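Milestone M4 deliverable, item 7.
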Amino acid sequence: MSERDFESAVHAVYAPLVRSASVLCASSSDVEDVVQETMLRAVRSYGSFNGSSSLLTWCYAILARVAAAANERRARKLPDDYAGIAAAARNQSLPPVDSALLEDEEARVLIDAIRSLPDRQREMITLHFLHEQSYAEIAAALNVAVGTVKATIYSAKAALREALPHGAEARRA
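Output delivered:
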């Protein structure tokens, strides 16, 4: 694959990376910066892509590292008092007015629940459900055993069942 073809292919995975970043980033204001940094790193690392995984999976591994670093920087910047106030503000919800707003609220609750997972669980859940990656593909992308992927996703699902309101859980079942 030529470098120009590679750049085109990286740009083709832009939209899925934005969706993943919106889940992985602690702040929605970091999403665009994280995706742009991921794209730059992917293009610069052209020589290290060996094709053993899909380009999306390879880029996702970069995205996960960039998002984790952005989340760390953001956590260090926020004073403890402000972080508590910001978390409380995120948890406040407006009453639903129509079905579209209700669906948006349910999506927000689900995304917030996924964001509250530990980094590794959040990465694997995102790869498995959002990008429809198999356990083997996730294991290859994150350089872990398939059994680790299975156990981590199982734990993440259990944590999400606990975190989601019972009404939302029933609708998703």
